[in-house]
Amino acid sequence: YGGPIEQSFFAISMQFSGISLLFCTATLKIYWNSISSLNYEKKFDELKLTHNLFSRYLLIISVVISGAMMPWSYEILLLLYGTEYQSAYLLFTLMFLYPIHQSIAQLIGSTFYALEETKRYVLISSSILLMGTFITLYLVSDFKIVINGLNLLSLGLGIKFIFTQFLTFFVLSNWLNKNYQIRTEFLRQFAIIILFLVIGYASYLSSNSLSYFINSDLIIFFISKQIYLCLIIMMPSIILTTRMDIKNFITNFSLNKTQ
């Protein structure tokens, strides 16, 4: 549905949304080794702490990148792809939300493998994947099953990806909470996401107000990033918890990296 134009819209949106997933991929092996060792040694308190810390910092990394890039979606499209891709603006913007919980969902998947709960993980993931097929059909096309599809084309596919990855994260997190008492801070996560997006758009708007005096988009972009970073640094308590948590995280990360 939509042909090669809509496919190209979705393809470029996915490319940029995968930037923050690169860090997640790099840390998964270290995390898996750590969780596996703690589970083997029956150190469940340390296992919970490690899971929560890795989840928190992966969320921070993902949302910092998304908050920095999302307000500049239109300018990025124009600069890299030209006016022909202006119609992809909304999809391009939305797809910066995709890696936020996708990175944590991958981390949770590693937790299931480390805890030897592969069967449960495959069952849950496969069920959501199957459901996603029908959601895709409803959002992307105008095909009628019970009600007419929305025919949103590439935008519908982007919405489906964001919804199913969050649903996967939510179901897997609740299963871990119920069976291993590994709690997920849902409210804190949403507060952090909203806060960073607000900071991102605030820095974007404030820097663009200087366009009356500065006739360079590149300079305005760097000013925006400086404002963004300054606002983040001013609120460390939102990002981190205690110095002991940070110390434990760094120590755990360093030890497992050397193994």
Structure summarized in a few sentences:
Helix content is about 80%, strand content about 0%. Helix 3 packs parallel to helix 9 and helix 3 crosses helix 12.
- Rg (C-alpha, Å): 20 Å
State the helical fraction.
over 70%
Biggest sheet, open or closed, and with what strands and sense?
none
Estimate the global geometry from the Cα principal axes.
Answer: flat
Summarize model confidence as the mean pLDDT.
84
Terminus-to-terminus distance:
49 Å
Structural class: mainly alpha
Individual helix count? 12
Order of helices and strands: HHHHHHHHHHHH
Classify the beta-strand content into a percent band.
under 5%
Unreliably modeled segments = none
Number of strands: 0
Notes on the structure:
It is a single chain. With 259 residues, the protein is an all-alpha fold. The protein contains twelve helices and no strands. Helix 1 packs parallel to helix 8 and helix 3 runs parallel beside helix 9.
Which SSEs are present, and which pair or pack?
Blueprint (H helix, E strand, L loop, with lengths): L2 H15 L3 H20 L3 H26 L3 H9 L7 H6 L3 H17 L3 H23 L12 H28 L5 H23 L8 H17 L2 H4 L3 H16 L1
Helix pairs in contact: 1-8, 2-3, 2-6, 2-12, 3-6, 3-9, 3-12, 6-8, 7-8, 9-10
Search tags:
259 residues; 79% helix; single chain; mainly alpha
